[in-house]
Design goal:
Blueprint: H1 5-29, E1 34-36, E2 42-44, H2 45-61, E3 67-69, H3 77-80, E4 85-93, H4 95-100, E5 106-113, E6 116-124, E7 129-134, E8 139-143, E9 146-150, E10 163-168, H5 173-177, E11 186-191, H6 194-202, E12 208-211, H7 221-229, E13 233-236, E14 255-258, H8 265-268
Helix pairs in contact: 1-2, 6-7
Length: about 270
């Protein structure tokens, strides 16, 4: 069964929205259990429910495409390195935000082809907003019935304009500012999950976001496709490219999401 990229994008959008709506019902009722994983990161019964919905929908509609999810055990590299394409999902990005009741959590689904994200879908249930992109087709935001193309903010003066940093409510601001050049002026936009901060950059609400700490490849797959198509980039904080399904570990390095590519970001970010 061979689906076009456009058909696969529709399948991913439907799966993300279906899971997201059910997660929002659980969130509104407050009927969930919270647990701690072995790495001490939180997970809830809502994460597992979203995972089940997405896995079932994808397996039913694309039985030939393997799936990697944050909430399922990872296969050894020797087995998964044979995959030419696969679904990469984070059923709830921002579980801490879900538990803290900030509303800033999202469902992430990416399709990785030849180690590169070619589809990215991020559904923000509390905002009833869907961000999506596919390679070379642009990035879009659907809110209620309106769908519009999105792009990173274009600086009027790339070397001088004030830079808007999307910053986590739960991450030390000092750690981030310590890695920013003091030659520039910054403003901050508090935001929740990693993927929503990337979406804010894709639609021009912020210009840069630095993530310090442990994340998995599923935290960047969907964002990377959307931000690329919106005219930005996601790279490791050292400016090396991120990799997908090429290492034993599926952990990401510290990474940055960058807006307008005319800015000399390597002079803005002083990551040691």
């Amino acid at each position: 069964m061979h689906h076009s990229i456009a058909e696969l994008l529709d399948i991913a959008k439907e799966a993300a929205c279906t899971a997201g709506k059910e997660v929002l019902e659980i969130y509104d009722k407050g009927t969930f259990e919270a647990y701690e994983k072995e790495d001490e990161s939180p997970v809830t019964s809502a994460d597992y429910r979203a995972n089940d919905i997405i896995m079932n929908m994808l397996q039913e509609q694309t039985p030939d495409i393997p799936i990697m999810s944050e909430e399922t055990p990872q296969l050894p590299l020797a087995e998964r390195s044979k995959w030419t394409r696969y679904w990469l999902i984070d059923p709830i990005d921002g579980t801490q935000e879900f538990i803290a009741r900030s509303g800033d959590f999202a469902v992430n689904i990416a399709l990785i082809e030849n180690n590169e994200p070619v589809i990215g879908v991020i559904y923000w249930p509390a905002g009833e907003t869907l961000y999506f992109a596919s390679k070379d087709q642009g990035a879009y935001k659907r809110c209620s019935v309106e769908t519009k193309k999105i792009n990173v903010r274009q600086f009027k003066a790339p070397a001088e304009d004030v830079i808007m940093i999307a910053i986590s409510r739960r991450q030390s601001r000092e750690r981030v500012f310590d890695r920013m050049s003091d030659q520039r002026v910054y403003q901050t936009l508090p935001a929740g999950s990693c993927s929503l901060k990337a979406c804010f950059i894709a639609e021009g609400k912020a210009d840069v976001f630095m993530r310090l700490g442990i994340t998995g490849e599923w935290d960047t797959g969907a964002s990377q496709c959307i931000i690329n198509e919106a005219g930005g980039r996601i790279v490791a904080a050292t400016f090396d490219e991120l990799s997908y399904n090429q290492r034993d570990s599926v952990e990401n390095p510290d990474f940055v999401v960058l807006g307008d590519q005319r800015v000399n970001w390597e002079s803005v970010i002083c990551y040691k």
